[in-house]
Amino acid sequence: MATSTPVRHAWRALTGLLVITALMFGINALGVYVFKQSSWSPELALDLQGGTQIILQAQTTDGADPTTEQMNQAVTIIRQRVDASGVGEADVTTEGGKNIVVQIPGEADEETRQRIQASAQLQLRAVLFTGQPVTSYVGEDGKETPFPTPDPSLLATPTASPTSGSDMSWITPKLQAEFLAYDCNDPANDPASAPKDEPLITCDANNQAKYILGPVELDGSSISDATFGLQSNNGQWAVNLKFDDEGTKTFGDISQRLYGATAPLNQFAFVLDGLVLSAPSMNAIILDGNPSITGSFTQESSKTLADQLKYGALPLSFEVVSSDTISATLGSQQLQIGLITGLIGLVLVAIYSLITYRALGFVIIASLVVMGVLTYLALCILAWRMGFRLSLAGVAGLIVSIGFTADSFIVYFERIRDELRDGKSITGAVEDGWGRAKRTIYISKSINILAAVVLYILADSTVKGFAFTLGLTTVIDVLIFILFTHPVMQLLARTKFFGSGHPLSGLDPEALGAVYRGRAQFRAPAVAAAKGPQGRKTARSRGEAERRQTIAERKAAELTSASKTDASQPGTRKEGDD
Amino acid sequence: MRSMSQLGNDLYSGKTSFPFVGRRRLWFILAAVLVLASVLVPLVRPVQFSIEFTGGSQFTVSGLSNPDQSQATDAVHSVVPGVATKVTTIGSSAVRVQTDQMSPEETQLVTAALADAYKVDTSEVTASFIGPSWGADVTRQSLWGLAIFLALTFIILGLYFRTWKMSAAAIVGVIDVLIITIGVYALAGFEISPAAVIGFLTILSYSLYDTTVVFDKIRENTHEDGEVSGRTFGESVNLAVNQTLIRSINTTVVAILPVGAILFIGAFAFGAQTLSDISLSIFVGIIVAAYSTLFVAAPLYSFLRESEPDLKVRDERVLAARVRAGVPA
Q: Which among A158, A183, B82, B246 is placed 20 to 30 Å from B175, CA to CA?
């Protein structure tokens, strides 16, 4: 018996399950100990660990949906902004085509919010003055002395009204003092919000230089395109710009003014979010609106600058559509509630399974335990590989799946019982019940998986978490059904306790009403047994009782004549026509 | 549980049988009444939409030993006098305040005022701002998901069962479940929130799953009956539904136990809004789904098929044979 085919299959399936489990353990162990990126607990989403989530929606001036490229650019820029505000581990992702989700651990201060929300503004300003990014000088005494905080009484308005963006009279004594004391690294300095019609003190993006820039002369919307490529004459990487009509005219005027001026007044700065991206000098008068920026570019850096200029040229701004701050206390409290209810749900299902299916209930419980282990491992691995974070909705998905998973076992056990009622042996009933149940399980579970996939693709982040856990548990459910529940049943059917149909096994053929009993004998219609309040029910019971005989005998006596069988169907007909 | 397995045996053999198909006219009328009632519920009791749909600001103060609601209103009004506020106590240790949309400065001031009023750290105060378009976006996406899912399901079930009539019956059953569940949900006075929308979508999936299991048994029975069946088509369908009845009952109980645990223990005792919204919609939906499969989808399928010429001929032959055999009607 021990080497019969079902038994071999059963052991093979169980070994397969063990291998899969070990493999998942191994993968995650690799992640934890070798790559140091994974952990032995699933990552939690903001609503469970506390933090801030801001959802921004892209607003285009013409109302069209932004392109994927634009959105990716926006994510890059917003990520830079969040990083610049000194918040670690921020998570910036796109969602549903036009939303950007920013998740920050802890609380976000107002400044960070402003910074994230500000639309990317590309400005073109003339350079008035440049210098090292220092805030101190070595005095006559040979000591390092910080530049003093500007005296508020210093003159702040130009003595002579400036005639152009390059007019040195923009630089007032106060501005000069501020420039000297300007610290590029001080987060309190926010050049992005500076007024457009005034000069600006700022630094470049890498804090390599400080600038005083003139007022805004052109903004990003006047750049219609920016590309990068190799220059044909010298083989250097260059960024090629293309201005629109108005931009061409204005830029022509500027280039005439700047060309030939003394450095740094011949430099022209591209400013993104208040920081200087590039400040090339004007090497020619450009009237066709197609300037090129050259310098020590690599392919990579020219591409980056071209993208930044092009993106800055796009009329894309963001509006906060939702902002959430979850306190860490509330988060851990909700997780706790989720875990407690999950445990209670599990216990209730276990109790009900034991009552209904007796010892078979233990098979359900064991299956659910295996399910729990695999799901837990899957969540750890997915957190590592895909950045999956378990949210409260995801926890709800897991709890709900307990019941949905137990259902597939119920379908199976009921099928086994049906086979037993038809008079099969217990080992036979397990095999045949499986044959029928698996069809049902495959089709119905694929509907569930389909739902999860559709939801996952279409839905926003909250629904995604839920759809994901529901889909994941359904897949694992089917896996366990094949590799655990059925093999275990095959093996149990060969034990004395289950195989002989012990009353407590849940597979008692006596209780299930038949072993071959109905084949040759005709049970008297149980008229008296009908407990229904109406006479109609009595009549029906009689009819149905006789129909039962047809089922019991169906397999043995397939060709019973129709008239003979039908002779006992009065109640059914009445019912069918009702 | 002796009686349960006895009932299972009797249902399987046909000794006991509930007239799901036989009395279908009654069930259809009942379903129509339930659907109509669900549609009319909003007239009696307008549907409440959560802050995600209406837009606004929401503050939650947690970690309180004595959540007194009036302090919250006072604190908010000290910053923005006269603004409409809705204060609810969640569980035994938290207070939630919903207001109209506030500016970022006001939000900060209110957060500080609330922390001050309840003498907790500002980190215990959760502040959310939700634009009015947010919930609408979620819903629009969900409706798309719904439409695509139903279309795909229709095709897959049609291919599997080799008849569009099962697909149609299953989908009518699902829509029935959705409408009634939303009706009950609204009647219970819960706000429709994105979490509830998730719940409704889950119900969709669960309901179709449930219907598919029963339909698979119907397919098996009607297929096996073949030409020599002593049963009419409707009787075969009815027997299949009865034979899976114990499964339907057990499944429903097992599925609502964990959901019920979330609903009663999680939501009412501790107050986690997301959990209570999801679980109430799923709790109601599972029960309605079981009802709908038995009383709407299966009888409807039988109704759709019975008029097919082949089946009509066969049914007439079966009935005629009974009359010939002298069976009293």
A: B246
Contact A495, A22 (CB under 8 A): no
Find all residues with CB under 8 Å of B38, minimum gap 6, and list them.
B179, B180, B182, B183, B184, B186
Contacts of A374 (CB under 8 A, 6+ apart): A20, A21, A24, A476, A479, A480
Pairing of strands A292-294, A99-104: unpaired
Q: What is the pLDDT of residue A40?
A: 87
> Quick check: A351 pLDDT over 70?
yes
Which residue, chain included where needed, has tokens 């006992």? A568
The 3-class secondary structure across A16-30, one letter per residue, is HHHHHHHHHHHHHHH
Query: Cα dist. A538→A526, A572, B21, B237, B319 in Å?
Result: 9, 12, 18, 21, 21
Q: What is the pLDDT of residue B328?
A: 55
- B2 CB neighbours in chain A (<8 A) are 511
- Taking the Cβ of residue A212 and every Cβ of chain B, the question of whether any pair is shorter than 8 Å is answered with no
pLDDT in tens, A42-61: 888 777 887 888 888 877 66
The token pair at B87 is 């204060």
How are beta strands B125-130 and A316-326 bridged, if at all? antiparallel
Q: CB of A109 within 8 Å of any CB in chain B?
A: no
Question: Among positive and negative, which fits the CA dihedral A540, A546, A550, A551?
Answer: positive
Give CA–CA dist B34/B49, Å, rounded.
22
Q: Which residue has the tokens 């489990």?
A: A21
What is the DSSP code (8-state) at residue A89?
A: S
Strand-strand pairing, A91-95 and A237-243: unpaired
Q: State the Cα–Cα distance between residues A137 and A149, nearest whole angstrom.
A: 13
Q: Nearest CB to B5: which of A319, A323, A512?
A: A512
Phi, psi (degrees; rounded to nearest 5) at B244: -100, 5
pLDDT on residue B173: 93
For residue A549, name the pLDDT band (cuts at 50, 70, 90). Answer: very low
H or E element, residue B218: helix B194-225
Residue A309 contacts B, CB cutoff 8 Å = no
Is the ipTM of this structure higher than 0.85?
Answer: no
Residue of A50, A214, A96, A118 whose CA lies nearest to A461: A96
The token pair at A287 is 């009237």
Residue of B nearest to A526 (CA): B15
Using alpha carbons, select from B231, B26, B55 the residue that is nearest to residue B128.
B55
The alpha helices in A459-514, defined as continuous H runs, are 461-480, 486-492, 496-499
Of A211, A231, A244, nearest to A314 by C-alpha is: A244
- Measure the CA–CA gap between B209 and A405, rounded to whole angstroms: 12
Residues of B in contact with A334 (CB under 8 A): 272, 274-275
Q: Give the pLDDT band (50/70/90) at residue A552.
A: very low
Does the CB of B130 have a partner CB in chain A at under 8 Å? yes
Give the contacts of A504 (CB within 8 A, at least 6 positions apart): A358, A359
Distances A292 to A229, A271, A435 between C-alpha atoms, Å: 10, 16, 72
Residues 278-317 (B) with a CB less than 8 A from some CB of A: 278-279, 282, 286, 317
The per-residue pLDDT of chain A, averaged, comes to 77
Residue B123 is which amino acid?
A: S
Q: Is the pLDDT of residue A534 over 60?
A: no
DSSP-assigned beta bridge partners for residue B123: none
Question: Lowest mean pLDDT: which of A319-328, A397-406, B283-292?
Answer: A319-328
Burial of B94 (0-12, 13-18, 19+ CB in 10 A): buried
Using alpha carbons only, what angle is made at residue A157 by residues A156 and A159, rounded to the nearest 5 degrees?
Answer: 125
